[in-house]
Predict the structure of Cytosol aminopeptidase domain-containing protein.
Amino acid sequence: MCLRRRVPSRGPSPSSHAAHQHRGVLKRNWLLWSSSPLGNNNGPLDASTLECLTNAADGVRLAARIVDTPCSEMNTDHFLEEIRSVGQELGIPPTIIRGEDLKQKGFGGIYGVGKAAEHPPALAVLSHTPSGATQTIAWVGKGIVYDTGGLSIKGKTTMPGMKRDCGGAAAILGAFKAAVKQGFKDNLHAVFCLAENAVGPTATRPDDIHTLYSGKTVEINNTDAEGRLVLSDGVVYASKDLTADIILDMATLTGAQGISTGKYHCAVMTNSERWEAACVRAGRSSGDLAHPLVYCPELHFSEFTSAVADMKNSVADRENAQSSCAGLFIGSHLGFDWPGVWVHVDIASPVHAGERATGFGVALLLSLFGQASEDPMLNMVSPLGGASDTSSADSMERDCKRRRLV
């Protein structure tokens, strides 16, 4: 079933979100609905379905607005205000660890990346803990509000657009808001790893060694491989402090993602074959398409070998599965023998279409975790635990694809 046939279409303004606030003439914020419903019976939308789609669309717009906003406004402090605003609307006060407190508590990845910026780095958490929950899920988002590359500085053609490096955290904020509004039955934590990768007197240098929240030491050989550092702190916090059973991290992590899976499919890597297949199905049902990366730590993790620390932060051979290796770096801090489910989602290319943000990731998360929702439509499109977790779903997906190709 193609959820995207009923959800507002993804793409630049005006279809997916309002026209940019800095443009002189604002265009009308259209909602594009298909006249063809999810099921086989044509008919008007009922109130509950319309509410679900509206909340999903609002989440997409929130994510896109954050990603489109320049760092002169969307700095780490402003992003925290966005998190507080969502928390206030949902009745959830955020937990925030900020600035020097990160260093004192051992978050060497987030602190090391963001310490040179005017606005300090932060770890923020929104926690939804309903009674009767049977498992704990954590979504961990990379929120680099601007990425200069640090001292391994980007060039003049590769730095523009780096306001989008907070796309993972933005998508998780939008999805969390929609998921909680629709009724989420399990514990759900949204973890935001916020920093600006800036250049300054206190900036991390190549050759520096940071101790991350996992306790592992990392030799920095590329300050422009910063996202994996903040996410490693985030996923370990989700495991140790939040005792999560399922951890999903989402990030605009690597430029190589676009080479691996293209502009329209995010790249997915996980320690679970079932969840890998579920991500692909959720991509088809939501319109936020997904495709697996190679998961092979026994062959790829040696790329991070260091003579002076537990690992380096960037690969030795940039032609050896870069996107997979970047994900493995994050997974290594959880431990490759960690018993829970870990999913890594790289959305570097589909986070934008041309010059505008798409809000990619919100619909994917709502579909992927729809089995934990009280909403019947999200239950229906979920690839796990429902009717779509069968071979019949494959048949419907193939039929949907055939209709698109005709």
Remarks:
- The mean pLDDT is 90.
- The first strand starts at residue 95 and ends at 98.
- The chain has 13 helices and 13 strands.
- The chain has one domain: 3-19+47-372.
